[in-house]
Automatic annotation (TrEMBL), chain A:
Gene3D superfamilies: P-loop containing nucleotide triphosphate hydrolases. It holds the Pfam family ABC_tran. PANTHER family: ABC TRANSPORTER, ATP-BINDING PROTEIN. It comes from the Bacteria. It comes from Streptomyces ureilyticus. Belongs to the ABC transporter superfamily. This is ABC transporter ATP-binding protein. The keyword ATP-binding applies. GO terms for molecular function: ATP binding. The lineage of its organism: Bacteria, Bacillati, Actinomycetota, Actinomycetes, Kitasatosporales. Transmembrane segments: none annotated. Keywords: ATP-binding, Nucleotide-binding, Transport. Residues 10-241 form the ABC transporter domain.
TrEMBL record, chain B:
It comes from Streptomyces ureilyticus. This is Zf-HC2 domain-containing protein. It comes from the Bacteria. The keyword Transcription applies. Keywords: Membrane, Transcription, Transcription regulation, Transmembrane, Transmembrane helix.
Amino acid sequence: MTDLPTPPTVSAAGLTLRYGSTAALDDVSLRLGAGVTGLLGPNGAGKTTLLRVLATAVPADRGAFTVLGHDPNTTAGRQNVRRALGYLPQTPGFHPDFTAFAFVDYVAILKEMTNRAARHREVRRVLDEVGLGDVRGKRIRRLSGGMRQRVALAAALVGGPGFLVLDEPTVGLDPEQRMRFRELIASAGEGRTVLLSTHQTEDVAMLCHRVIVMAGGVVRFEGTPAELTARADGRVWSSTERDPGARAGWRTGTGSFRNVGDPPEGATLVEPTLEDGYLLTLDASDAASASSSEVTA
Amino acid sequence: MSWHVAEDDLRAYVRGELAPPALWSADTHLAACAECRAVLNEVGDPVALDEGWERLDAELDAPRPGFVESLLVRIGVADHTARLLAATPVLRLSWLGAVAAVLVMTVLAANSVRASETPTLFLALAPLLPLAGVALSYGPALDPTYEMTVVAPMHGFRLLLIRTVAVLAVGLGLNGLATLALPSYGLRALAWLLPALALTATGLALAPRLGPVLAPGLVAGVWVAVLVIAEAQTEGTLAPYTVAGQGVAAVVAAFAAGLLYLSRDRFDSTSAHTPFAGFQDGGAA
């Protein structure tokens, strides 16, 4: 793990949360600084649970964290964390009869903005920022999925939060909408701390200055995207047939096979990508779990 | 123009102190009336006036509030509180219409089958309607924005109370109108009031421990069971509607209200373990 380029704004130590016998978070420690940090991991890795804990939606069983110097385990500290927070949940809910403006206005009121004129200026600002200024009077049920997602992002941005938590915001968006959303997130990451959960390694490659990989409720990697990519240096090769010794292999558009794992002697090595580094990190996690199970057994 | 904004209102407008609905009227009127805009130029200093135009610009962009929200503002509710209440599903006309229909049918039944001295069916049902209304106005299963709401700095208990007071006021109001349709029973027809408060407060007080669905469901079940047992054991007025029964309801309501107050921080988060586990100061819950 490399040092953060800026002082940490969010620090967590030993976060643990169990659902029955399953550890959704198992002794998770991390530090976030200004800019966009990507949170990668397969389904069930604990990403959403971590985001919900850091957003103060659910308390951890054990462990502690601070956001911008505030401790959420005190009433005053929790209020301060929430005042500094913008949260876009995995499946944001809406009051469908509300217009985009009314919904963001509603969230602004929940964020204690009671001055009507100032609040309306702020609502207009964030709707313009996400490109919905022209449809602010439309009812949410009449908006497309991509537009609804942008309404939810506007609600997260209202009030200018210092810590933005985005849970898989690009899921279900078409390529053009996804690119538009990446632009918005990149812009939102200027001068604030953004934690972005995603399945898309392209999101991380294009947006993030740091990346965290989780699997089985445990942090498996924390560093820069370049460092994650470097994990696959010398471990990606091409071949005319699928290499049975590869951890993963697939036919590419050119007809050749791209293999990831431990290359055989004389293999034709190719430039690794972030996804290769991610796959190898997950694979190492699986191997470590299997070996741990064998030892336990 | 048949009317113009009063000069005092224009001064208040420039200072940003004019409150809705007068503010809305001024916004709309100023956009169309050059004469009032000229007066506005005279009464305000340039800096404040620029702010006023900016505010007007923002207001004209803001969509008009819906029927319930406008009505709430006109009766004196602050505009931000009205917006919070407009997001309460059970304050929509469809739900209120359904409650009114149930009450009308119950009153008709009570008047047509007058077998005893008390309108038992009405008194059994009336306390359950406010309980159901309050139960349906909050919670993760019923509020689509619950997760955004719970991480907002506004205290969850405050939002709960705002919605509860509004739903109770509407529910008790409808019950009260229904009671007027049972004049032959006199004050006995008002015996639903204390049980209604007791059931609603108990349902809310148990919600942090049992969840927002099970708690009111259990309370409703106990209420029905009490009535069935009382019906089987008594010939005359059912126990909950006697003086002693009303006293018990008052004590239960007060006790539950106290318990609810003590549990207020539990409405401030969700949990995998219990419906509203909440945070405990000094450590994770």
